[in-house]
Amino acid sequence: MPLEPLARWRLVLGEASDGALGNCLDERGRAMDSALSWLYGREGELSERGVRQGGSGESVLSVPEWINDVHTLFPKETIERLEQDAVERYQIDEVVTRADVLERVEPNETLLRAVLRTKHLMNPEVLAVARRIVQRVVNELMEKLAREVRRTFSGVLDRRRRSPLKVARNFDFRRTLRENLRRYSPAERRIAIERAAFYSRTRRHVDRWQVILLVDQSGSMASSVIHSAVTAACLWGLPGIQTHLVAFDTAVVDLTRDVTDPVELLMKVQLGGGTDIQLAVAYAAGLIETPRRTLVVLITDFFEGGSPGMLVRRVKELCDQGTKVLGLAALEPDATPNYDRDCARRLVDVGAHVAAMTPGELAAWIAEKVRA
Length: 372
Prior knowledge:
This is VWFA domain-containing protein. By secondary structure, the protein is of the alpha/beta class.
């Protein structure tokens, strides 16, 4: 049953609003308020502004009890937001380091990021539960992105040939209209379509290309690491594409042999630590077989902990030899970048492209380059 508007405001403003709003919460509303106070009452600055403070007594809720209450009291969208804040805003690691809690939370990308950050704290029992969650989220991402990649690389329309296959995206509107004009009804002002026409689709021959994904595994790049693993798995095995996946911080780890199993790959990633981007670019240079048929995709926030000057020099060498270099400040669904703009600008000046993309947009960019 939906809450009354006054009760909604009371939940937003917290106990500090009791004087103005009065006792407007029923039993369910009080339970919701208790769950919200358990989480947001730990926000120190709110007490100074008199907003959403915790109650006068200490909360006796444990993390499992809070999770159970949240799943009972709130809709799915709110549950995901509360769990996200618990993990990312307040670092309540119990959410992802206890098997009984982990089995209750909603599998989503927020939870996956938290698992990757805290998996070193997990005992084998918890790790087994965490792996199942990683598998479920990765499967959902793979299903969505694989469709985009297949569509992007599926070929181009051949407008000179007709096809017996009735596929909506190959629909030939002009030919269909022309061949059915005699069935136009002036009274009804419509055409009765007896037979629809469709274009044929042909695959272009492409030379073998290398796509080298260099992924910064610093803590701020967690979402991009996840989507890089899934993107690499979707690109793997495409005709004419040889995919490499390399993770780096102050060291470089080649994860290419695990590309076909993104779950195993992600469980090997170690988020956090420093960043030596130029070292990763140097490693990529050693993988290149044919410079003019190679794409190096550098996924990083461009906060270089090594030598910025050496990074610029190495990228310039790649661009000068004909290799296409794309710097991605973010690779995630909303593609929200937070990066060192000065470093990125210096790379653009020597021939690189810099952007923030969704995984689907990256696939389209790769398809465009290999077909050029």
